[in-house]
Write the structure tokens for this entry.
Amino acid sequence: MSPQQPAVLGFGQTRYKTSRADVGTPELIFEAVSRALADADTELTEIDAVVFASAPEVFEGVYEPDRWCVEAFGGVGKPLIRVHTGGATGGSGPLAASRLIAAGLYETVLVVGLQRTSETADAQAVFTTIFDPVYEQDVQLNVITGIALVASRQMKYFGLTEDHMAWVSTKNFGNALRNPYAHLHREITEQEVKQSRSLAYPLRLLHTCPRSDGAAAVVMTSAEKARGKSHAAYVAGLGCAADVYRIGDRIHDDESDFAIPRAQAWAATEAYQEAGITDPRRELDVVEVYAPFANLEIAYYESLGLAPPGRGIDLVETGATAMDGDIPVVPSGGCMTTNPIGATGLIRFGEAAAQVMGRAGDHQVDGARLALATACGGIDQFYTAAVLAAQPA
């Protein structure tokens, strides 16, 4: 990394619910930012610039929510950048802030992530419009049916079964019970998962994520300034990548087709190279992956280099990604238990930073020194990856 290596000083988030009707959107942001500043032991006057991460503004029910909320995150009189890459927005925010810091443009940057899907009557109706209008929209794809197609392809490619998906769901819901901020606090069994309501074959209700209202924020600065603080997480590597628009055009050279997201592999490879990671399975201590469906998490084991091609299910069958496994994945409960879309990637980044700082509370992974956080958006089109370390480079 540059001599201006970026670092994370603090992470704050709101409580998440299907509808946070108790507060307005600016108050929601104020809640997250206040907690991040307190966690970072940083005053608002120390913030040099703000990166505002918000996905489709139709969910907020107001055009340009960054304008509405500027006082709530202390943006008045400061440089402000808004980023939007669909569901990957929350991952693109800290990536943008990191590059601003590494370039020496600003020393301390606040990143804010927001989403209020409760302001939209039918989120799936919005999602149907993101597919190609000529070849895909006529078949009425939405996120759930689109991911169901992916799951069907995974059943053929690497032998995905309902048992594999049920294990992932049970793991993530169990982890969320340790996380006081998680939206869904419910203990479930694999049998309950397999008996939950069918959505689109082979997906069931307990294979998928909730709709969540909420916000998150992180305070980032240079490694030089971070050394004077009591705790920090250091950005060791970053990556991002985009794939083609049409799902049918994502044909790989091997048999995986769109079963394994190649754009995530591209983003992760870039982050690993920057961080000097050659064996992610052995070198990483914890992973906070953006996986809103159980089948996607298993596919990501492969695309992130945690398992060889076609063998992501091995990590399920051996329990490797459980809290007591050798590579815990989403100890926070992850996207399957909390999903404020535009903020979800920022939560993954903040949770990964908290892990290497040893400040993740009851879902802390013992001895975590190197963590990976990812984000995805646009129906497997946009991906980010960030490696966070306990020590500076």
